[in-house]
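#structure-requests
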Amino acid sequence: MAFDTGFVSDYIRAMFVAVTCECSSDDHRNAVYGILRQYGFKAVLRDVHESPSISDTTLNRLKRDINRVTDSYDIIRLYQFPFEGTLAITSLKDKKWRRLKVRTPG
């Protein structure tokens, strides 16, 4: 017998994200910092911003917005936890996003 309540969960997976920036110009840096503030990130060090809770969907929009205001000389790194049960380090370098998943041995 199938049981269907018709209930759709509002649960959204959220993760901690830290962003580090090495921008080629002050204009790019200011644009990236402005975007991070719009997404609720707080500056914790000169070139490091953090958000304690951001969803996958919002993170994808953030990456797209950062991509718009940077060039191939800018380097952005996102440290995401938990990401599929691991730590993920996503980097924008040469205008390409790449992700490395860090798993514990065993």
